[in-house]
């Protein structure tokens, strides 16, 4: 590698002000030491508004664990937007994300992505992963919450013939159920996998405020290591049930949205984005990230749930409120998470 450095230096004489890799990128879009990228290899439509996007990552990608997520960047009208998506492919191979068309970025991915497109990537992250040692598992999912669990199931059915998994998946109709054909095939070929589809348009809501529905479909659910992913109210009910009932294992949860404290919002205020030269009036329950993006400010972001800290932005003046716990943050130079904070009076930000 050291022998290549003089060559790189010589190449810069001919490419300045660009870098040599800017020209290499014309030949291979995955060649970039500054930004991890992935080349879309296949797009599969799972349901009317959902698609699985397979991609081949460039150098620097770390193999994901089943259940993890990654930040995905996509350019829309010349602006790069970042969102976090669960990886639905099994561990150990090229990754994939399964996206439901809700919101600007997800809509663009589902409707417009085609093989040959380039995605911008962040490394795999998250602790919603399979237990280290084999054990009977219960997977509770609703809607797109099936996505990270699908990675787990695909991994287990490939790697462990003795896997013992019960999946209970809630969807509005069978047509809306993600991966239903593949799950049927996997269950038919792996005796240790049982799939229960709970169709709310026919059976009503899967009620987790009491043990009745779980007792009905999985008698031994209390003895299984349990994972849950889905809408906030679905997960809130599951958490409450696990607190009330004696079980052998804690419930492990993956949330796609921030849990906000009731009444955590405040008075709001005028937010000044100094580098972007924009001012926006923001109410006390709207995040600074959302307000900035709505105003056309290019904001750093990642998980949008206060986990990855990609959105950290210097506070130049004013006070913000953390919508998760109501805490006030003030002081020049403080780094704030714009995805979970709202203004509490006038605020100046360096963005």
From TrEMBL:
Cofactors required: FAD
Domain FAD-binding FR-type: 33-131
InterPro entries for this protein: 2Fe-2S_ferredoxin-like_sf, 2Fe-2S_ferredoxin-type, Beta-grasp_dom_sf, FAD-bd_FR_type, FNR_nucleotide-bd, MRET, OxRdtase_FAD/NAD-bd, Riboflavin_synthase-like_b-brl
Residues annotated as domain 2Fe-2S ferredoxin-type: 269-351
Domain of life per record: Bacteria
Keywords, in A-Z order: 2Fe-2S, FAD, Flavoprotein, Iron, Iron-sulfur, Metal-binding, Oxidoreductase
Matching Pfam families: Fer2, NAD_binding_1
Name of the featured protein: Oxidoreductase
Organism lineage string: Bacteria, Bacillati, Actinomycetota, Actinomycetes, Micrococcales
